[in-house]
Every structure is written in C-alpha cells, then in structure tokens.
User: What shape does this take?
Amino acid sequence: MHPGHARTALITWLQARKHGGKIVMRIEDIDRPRVVAGAADQICRDHEWLGLDWDEGPHFQSDNEDSYERALAALQAAGLVYPCTCSRKEIAEIASAPHGADGPRYPGTCRNGVSKSGRAPALRFRFADPSPGFEDALCGPFPEGQTGGDFVLRRADGIWAYQLAVVVDDAESAISEVIRGEDLLGSTPRQIALYRALGYAVPRFAHVSLVLDTDGNRLATRHGAVSIAALRDAGRSAEQVVGQLACSLGLAATSAPIAAEELISRFSLGSISRSPFIWDAKG
Assistant: This one.
C-alpha cells in the first residue's frame, strides 16, 4: 500500500463514516502469478495503522471464481461473449486499430470466428457502440462513446479479467458507491455495460485525482513507490501521514499531524481537491 492507495482509502473511509455507510475490504488477488505472499495482511495492517477500519471482509477474489463462472455463463447465454485468439502484440501491430488512453482498441478480428486456430482463446465481451456515458461524482460528465472495443472477460490462461471480477464482486456485496483512482475512469463504461448486461444495479462512481512522484509519474508499487509500511518503519506516525494526505485534499490548511477521525466533520466529497498531488517521500 503506497500513499496513493492510502489517499483513496482515506476518502472512502471519510465518505462512509460521514454518511453512515459501510466499507467492504476486498483483496483483488485473481492474477495469482503476481500475488505477493503476505501482501493482503500488510494491506490490512496499513489500514489499521492509519485508523481506517472497515465493516465487511476482507473478501478475496480468489474465493469467488464460482460467481464469475455463473456471470460468464449468463453473458454467453445472451450471445455477448466470443473466443479470441489474438495476442496483445498482434492487436498493437494492427495499423488500423485506434488507440485510446488505455492502449489499442480491439478491432473485432475474432468477432465472427477465431483468427488463429490451435491457440487457447481468451473470451471477449461484445461491447456495443456507443459506450455508456455517466456522471462521475468528482470528474463530472464522462460522454458516451469515449471507450470502445470488445474487451477480455477471461484471459487465455484462464485468469479472470478485472472488469468482470469487480462487477460481480460489487453486485454481490451490494456496493452503492465506488471510490477509486482517476486512472480507472476510462474503464468505467466497460463495467457499466457489464452491470447492465447482468441485470445489476450500477453504483455511483467517484474517481480521485492521482498521487504522483517528484518526476510526475503515477505512484506504483511495481515501480518502487514508497510504501506506508516503509514510512512507518522510518519513524513517521500515522497522524503525520494522514495530515499530509488531508492537506493534499484541501481538508487541512497545513500538513500538521491529525487523526483520521478528526476529519469526519469537515469532510465533503464534492469539495476535495481534484488536482494531482506530488508526494515527496523526503517531506
């Protein structure tokens, strides 16, 4: 868990505690080859240290594969799924494939039959144009037609895709509000299409501005971003970390130490800063 995760977790916690909501702790561990041993326990410890408790869970996606299978079967029965044998490299090399913020848009090569026999196929969702628009609680209107291309529901190696897993998890947990990083804004129309195709209620979305490093890059664990555990081990107090995050959100005039619970009364989701925040690990 790095400061970007902690900032979003703080907003989620304050929103729930201010309005009497419940927080569901979910561990997204479906990509098992990338799961780091002990990471889930560390995430929970980091939340507890910061004073950010939760009401349900932790729920592990790896325990919910039967639900993903049922959702996939329902989509297949509706004619909304097809096998695809295209590799990422092949899609990227298709000169006519339009590119968006999250990479090349799939051009539909396998919509009417697989292009490469003998390969294990991924399973794609038939994503109708125009893609859904929606009103984001922080970023405002996201127009329809901005996100396109049939997307993967299950990879060729059998691993479930993020899009399907989070939609099923949200529905089963009766999630009414999703608060997450702005880097996932463009994925939301895909998830809305899945909510609707599966007959689920679509939650409200709020996408939080990102935390960047001093070079202007998004904080990412895989790129060596400083962790909350490392800050704790270096002698920072939870109140110091929360104070820095609170100041970045416009909830405090300075970065003076403060406990998360002291921020509840002054919190309003609509009034937090929408600008990216530069995290200086030396600050």
